[in-house]
């Protein structure tokens, strides 16, 4: 196929693409739509894509919406709402977002927008984005971190009324499908692993959520300290928090034999300070964490952690929207993805 000249004066149409590729307009339309319910020879599809590239064809979205109807046109568009802007800086959530984008691409959908929950308090923006003529599905990531007031809860209820397919990631909401991991079980596994390696004096640094009860459950079952005040050393959610928490613990001479960290970021902060103080890991203090973000394999020493299927949570959320199993209802399901220990050198 020779080089095709782009038109500088008029908009390229599907008819132009079809003529240049030597196929019918209906086949061009089919290839552009990304559908797979009809057999098109790979070489034909490739030829059409090459012509599209050479001519600079751009779909007429207004015409597509008019032809398919606004709701049908929006069916393949997915919105994402994050609890806050801080999530963009957190590797844990970056992996979840990567899973969402990968699934959308593979399943012929695409992410229409990524917004923060507080932005939806603007009624103009809310009405523009949260509508079934704009998106066919919505993924709500860790919004339990942002829902504080009655007004916040009202926003969630409005979302349920408007969007046909909704999935929560890393939190639960009544009548909504959710994908997450069992935080209590993960913390229990972390304690269990440390205990099996001979570390009996176990403490916790991290967020005050189900992970605390996982540690407490383990200690109760093994006749250890059961009061939360006795084993919960400090609240922390990032590297700075972990660093400051262990600094305070050391200054108070309360250093335990093993520390369970609520996240890898907290653990990295803890390990940073321990290394600065030349406190040997794990010879003097063992560290076990929860997450298994990529950098946890490159700490000194490499971090023993509980693997959470972060990318898979994002992928699963999109998959449920695509197959139509995420409708708000009394029968909404909660999918719990399994966790597993990643043995490295900190415990």
Topology summary:
Elements lengths: L13 H8 L3 H9 L8 H14 L5 H8 L1 H5 L2 E6 L8 H16 L3 E7 L6 H7 L7 E5 L8 H13 L2 E5 L7 E5 L1 H14 L5 E4 L4 H12 L6 H4 E3 L4 H13 L6 E4 L2 H13 L9 E6 L12 E4 L2 H13 L11 E4 L2 E3 L5
Helix pairs in contact: 1-2, 1-3, 6-14, 9-10, 12-13
Share of β-strand residues: 15-25%
Strand order, largest beta sheet: 2-1-3-4-5-11
The DSSP helix count reads 14
Mean pLDDT: 90
- Rg to the nearest angstrom? 25 Å
Measured as a percent range, the helix fraction is 40-55%
- In the predicted model, the low-confidence regions spanning at least 5 consecutive residues are none
Class derived from helix and strand content: alpha/beta
Largest sheet: 6 strands, parallel
Q: Encode the helix/strand succession as letters.
A: HHHHHEHEHEHEEHEHHEHEHEEHEE
Number of strands: 12
- What is the terminal-to-terminal distance? 62 Å
Task: Give the CA-based shape.
Answer: elongated
What does this molecule look like?
This protein is an alpha/beta fold. It has helices spanning 14-21, 25-33, 42-55, 61-68, 70-74, 91-106, 123-129, 150-162, 183-196, 210-221, 228-231, 239-251, 264-276, 310-322, and strands at 77-82, 110-116, 137-141, 165-169, 177-181, 202-205, 232-234, 258-261, 286-291, 304-307, 334-337, 340-342. It is built from 14 helices and twelve strands. It is elongated, with a radius of gyration of 25 Å. The termini are far apart. The mean pLDDT is 90.
């Amino acid at each position: 196929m020779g080089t095709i000249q782009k038109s500088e004066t008029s908009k390229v149409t599907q008819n132009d693409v079809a003529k240049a590729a030597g196929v019918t307009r209906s086949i061009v339309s089919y290839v552009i739509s990304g559908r797979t319910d009809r057999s098109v020879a790979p070489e034909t599809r490739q030829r059409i894509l090459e012509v599209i590239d050479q001519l600079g064809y751009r779909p007429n979205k207004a015409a597509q919406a008019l032809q398919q109807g606004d709701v049908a046109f929006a069916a393949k568009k997915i919105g994402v709402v994050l609890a806050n802007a801080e999530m963009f800086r957190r590797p844990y959530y970056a992996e979840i977002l990567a899973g969402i984008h990968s699934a959308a691409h593979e399943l012929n959908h695409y992410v229409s927008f990524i917004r923060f929950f507080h932005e939806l308090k603007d009624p103009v923006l809310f009405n523009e984005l949260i509508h079934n003529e704009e998106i066919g599905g919505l993924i709500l990531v860790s919004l339990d971190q942002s829902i504080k007031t009655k007004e916040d809860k009202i926003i969630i209820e409005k979302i349920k009324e408007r969007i046909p397919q909704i999935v929560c990631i890393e939190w639960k909401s009544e009548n909504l499908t959710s994908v997450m991991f069992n935080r209590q079980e993960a913390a229990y596994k972390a304690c269990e692993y440390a205990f099996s390696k001979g570390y009996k004096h176990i403490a916790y640094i991290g967020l005050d959520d189900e992970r605390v009860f996982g540690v407490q459950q383990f200690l109760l079952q093994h006749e250890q300290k059961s009061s939360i005040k006795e084993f919960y050393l400090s609240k922390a959610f990032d590297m700075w928090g972990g660093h400051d928490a262990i600094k305070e613990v050391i200054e108070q001479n309360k250093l335990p034999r093993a520390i369970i960290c609520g996240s890898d970021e907290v653990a990295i902060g803890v390990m940073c300070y321990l290394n600065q103080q030349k406190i040997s890991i794990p010879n003097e203090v063992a560290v076990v964490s929860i997450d298994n973000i990529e950098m946890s394999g490159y700490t000194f020493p490499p971090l023993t952690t509980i693997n959470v299927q972060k990318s898979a949570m994002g992928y699963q959320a999109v998959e449920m929207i695509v197959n139509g199993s995420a409708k708000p209802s009394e029968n909404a399901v909660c999918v719990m993805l399994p966790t597993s220990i990643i043995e490295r050198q900190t415990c």
